[in-house]
């Protein structure tokens, strides 16, 4: 139902609010003092978006439009509104207390979004579309991993109750050995054996196909992430999946995050004040983007295992009496600061393309180079190929090769 406009309000300032859905959007308009002017429903098509923007503009000068779900159902309207020069702000859904108090409907949510834009409670700029390709590849790769895990679990469950001969032959195998053996099966025997072996073969082949699919998607994702932000991808412990998740959390327009403290809060690694009366303390944040929090956690684990500076830091903190959990929390906060710098500024990545040709021109093997620096040959190989970044080692390696 559309509310009627009672007078000419073309000169007044207005704010819009949008409650988005898969097939429709509900748009509400309020004045600059919070008064309800009108609301209407439109379809999620190009014509519907144009009509919605015209509807809002008909009530006055549009200051801002608050949209709920700018990166999901409201993405189409957000693109249309920004292309027409309107300021769009991202609105979180109303909290549970407010919904219990005033109820829920499309008009209620649309007016709530407009009030959030008016009050300044919603002030974040929506993410742009430059990371849409990374999001698509990242989601596809993650779904391939989930499907592969489900198939592996099914294989294990079937083998638990399989006939003794099948369980004895394949139950002791692990990993790829089991998958390869099951994928080569030729089902035979009685009806039970044939059915069980057929199911196992089908699941094993599915695992192999999903593994190949995930590898191809990860390769494509790595290429996209490296082109989009080479400094982030080159950071120590940041792989394709981790870099993609941080880019998705920040968005293609990271200037929407004003400070690194805001980014840390967004990732759920900033301590939350929990003081009251004479108690002055902070507690662990359970909010924020938990996928980004998990990405920082993975970076911390990699650095704790392989990065010399991080291992020395862990040793110092352990000596000071901190637990492993406390140390990881400190590391995640520090890593968030580093990742924010990579996301918001251009970080120069030292070149390594000359290392392998230089070594080969000196007729030095990987084994000899690794022995000189006291590392594994694989470390030198990954350094030369740009898979693992270690600026100190690369600098020392280059100087040694030039002097050889």
UniProtKB/TrEMBL annotation:
GO BP term, example: DNA transposition
Domain Transposase IS116/IS110/IS902 C-terminal span(s) in chain numbering: 236-314
CDD domains xrefs: HTH_XRE
Pfam families, A to Z: DEDD_Tnp_IS110 (PF01548), Transposase_20 (PF02371)
GO terms for MF: DNA binding; transposase activity
Domain of life: Bacteria
Signal peptide residues on this chain, from the entry's feature table: none
Domain Transposase IS110-like N-terminal: 17-159
NCBIfam families: transpos_IS110 (NF033542)
Protein's name according to its UniProt entry: Transposase
């Amino acid at each position: 139902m559309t509310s009627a406009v009672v007078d000419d309000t073309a000169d007044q300032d207005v704010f819009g609010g949008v409650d988005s859905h898969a097939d429709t959007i509900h748009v509400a308009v309020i004045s600059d003092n919070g008064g309800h002017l009108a609301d209407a429903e439109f379809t999620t098509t190009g014509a519907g978006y144009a009509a919605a923007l015209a509807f809002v503009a008909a009530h006055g000068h549009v200051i801002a439009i608050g949209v709920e779900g700018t990166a999901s159902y409201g993405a189409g309207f957000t693109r249309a509104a920004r292309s027409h020069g309107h300021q769009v702000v991202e609105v979180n859904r109303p909290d549970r207390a407010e919904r219990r108090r005033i109820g829920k409907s499309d008009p209620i949510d649309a007016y709530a979004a407009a009030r959030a834009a008016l009050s300044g409670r919603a002030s974040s700029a929506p993410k742009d579309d430059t990371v849409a390709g990374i999001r698509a590849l990242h989601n596809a790769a993650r779904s391939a991993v989930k499907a592969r895990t489900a198939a592996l679990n099914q294989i294990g469950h079937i083998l638990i109750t399989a006939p003794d001969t099948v369980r004895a032959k394949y139950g002791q195998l692990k990993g790829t050995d089991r998958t390869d053996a099951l994928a080569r099966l030729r089902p035979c025997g009685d009806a039970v054996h044939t059915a069980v072996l057929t199911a196992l073969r089908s699941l094993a082949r599915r695992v192999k196909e999903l593994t190949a699919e995930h590898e191809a998607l990860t390769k494509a994702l790595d290429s996209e992430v490296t082109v989009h932000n080479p400094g982030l991808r080159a950071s120590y412990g940041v792989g394709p999946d981790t870099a993609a998740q941080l880019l998705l959390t920040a968005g293609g327009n990271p200037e929407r995050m004003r400070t690194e403290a805001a980014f840390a809060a967004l990732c759920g690694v900033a301590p939350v004040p929990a003081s009251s009366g004479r108690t002055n303390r902070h507690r662990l944040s359970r909010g924020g983007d938990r996928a980004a929090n998990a990405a920082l956690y993975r970076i911390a684990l990699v650095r704790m295992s392989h990065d010399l500076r991080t291992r020395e830091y862990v040793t110092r903190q352990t000596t000071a009496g901190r637990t492993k959990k406390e140390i990881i929390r400190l590391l995640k906060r520090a890593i968030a600061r580093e990742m924010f710098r990579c996301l918001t500024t251009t970080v120069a990545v030292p070149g390594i393309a000359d290392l392998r040709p230089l070594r080969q021109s000196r007729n030095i093997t990987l084994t000899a180079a690794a022995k000189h620096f006291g590392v594994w040959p694989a470390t030198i190989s990954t350094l030369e190929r740009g898979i693992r970044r270690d600026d100190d080692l690369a600098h020392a390696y280059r100087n040694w090769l030039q002097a050889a």
